[in-house]
Design goal:
The protein folds into two domains: 73 residues, Winged helix-like DNA-binding domain superfamily/Winged helix DNA-binding domain (Arc Repressor Mutant, subunit A, Orthogonal Bundle), CATH 1.10.10.10; 46 residues. The protein starts with 5 loop residues before the first helix and ends with a helix. The longest helix is centred in the last third of the chain and has 44 residues. Strand 2 and strand 3 form a beta hairpin. Helix 1 crosses helix 2, helix 1 packs across helix 3 and helix 2 packs across helix 3. It has four helices and three strands, in the order αβααββα. By secondary structure, the protein is mainly alpha-helical. The chain has a three-stranded antiparallel sheet. It is elongated, with a radius of gyration of 26 Å.
Length: 131
């Protein structure tokens, strides 16, 4: 599946909310929206929170769970089309690369410690043989 931009994802979420409201004659949940447009629940929550911050949808938490409502669908047009990766995705990649770098440093440190330990045992063994 090709990666889609936030503009397209926003249209998908708003359309799914409308369809689910029409079918059930009630407000829709994040779970149902994600299921309808084949997004993971985590990804759907992230997109819905972004859209809520932009004033496109409204997330209402109540006794029967979290419900989604369309607030101002026209604000979708303010989202840049075809925009590259979001800042979150960029930060995630930076974190993953730094984590890989940290893992390599740990591996090098462990290798050095193992080598030091081998040398120490070799010295001790040598001293014991000489005595």
């Amino acid at each position: 599946m090709k990666e889609i931009d936030l503009y397209t994802k926003a249209h998908l979420v708003v359309a799914a909310i409308r369809i689910l409201e029409r079918q059930a004659d009630a407000s829709s949940s994040i779970e149902k929206v994600c299921q309808m447009i084949s997004f993971s629940l985590e990804h759907g929550n992230l997109i819905c929170k972004k859209l809520d911050e932009m004033g496109i949808i409204e997330i209402v938490k109540g006794a029967y769970g979290t419900r989604l409502f369309i607030k101002n669908h026209l604000k979708i047009e303010e989202i840049p089309r075809g925009a590259g990766e979001s800042k979150l995705e960029e930060e995630l990649k930076k974190f993953q690369s730094s984590k890989k770098g940290l893992s390599k440093k740990i591996e090098l440190f462990q290798a050095k410690q193992t080598e030091k330990q081998k040398n120490l045992f070799a010295e001790l063994e040598k001293k014991l043989k000489n005595q």
